[in-house]
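Re: that chain you flagged

S.,

Sorry for the slow reply, it's been a week of failed gels. I finally had a moment to sit down with the sequence you sent. For the record, here it is as I used it:
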Amino acid sequence: MIKLFRKIRQDLITENKFSKYILYAIGEIILVVIGILIALQINVWNQNRLAVNEEQAILKNMHTEFLQNRESLKVAVLGSEAASNSGKILFNLIGKQREEIKKHNIDSLFFISLDTGSFRPSENTISDLLQSGRLQILKNSNLKDLLHLWARNMKDYESTQNRTEIKIDDELIPYLTEKYSMKDIDMYGRLNWTVKTQLNIDKLQVFEDIKFENILDDYLFRCSGNRNNLNELEKILGTIIKETRSQND
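Prediction finished late last night. Pasting the structure tokens below so you have them in one place:
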């Protein structure tokens, strides 16, 4: 009987130690899991912090870049307007009496109309985002849409600008080379000639030529498309500046 009692007592002691071991092991596991969860949370927080910092840096660079582009765009718009307005004055003189045409500085009007004021913005930040596939870094969905819209409109502008320059290089300049004095036009440019051509040519004959009217008409049509594209870019650019400014505030 005594032996049986001792055996039961020993078993209880053994079971009590095992229970304590189980509880200790469970406690250790819980501590390890908590440690892992804390480490994961810290890692996620750190990644989010880095992502936010990167986004803010991108927005700051983009804001600065588009502020610079706005100034370049203003110059391009002024050049486009000047070229178009001068071209329209020339166009409206076609078929007029020579006395009326001589009231205008034709050489200067030609010089201004041949410079369409091209716009070549800095797009380092956008290009990097689009080419690297990191556009998802930006949380502002409206801004992402604006950047895609900017890229599409820039392609449209570059196409119309290229067509306008081709018209100048392939048709308008060659025509004036045969019918007019390029030296007289270049008096208002970098060459800065002080004396007009000494050749005896009739420069006003171009205003009596249907070919000149057709060339100039098509040129002004392209200038109009070019100006419309610049207007659209101006609107988009202004909105991008507002969006990037609000993100940095």
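What I noticed first: The two ends are 86 Å apart (CA to CA).

Talk soon,
D.
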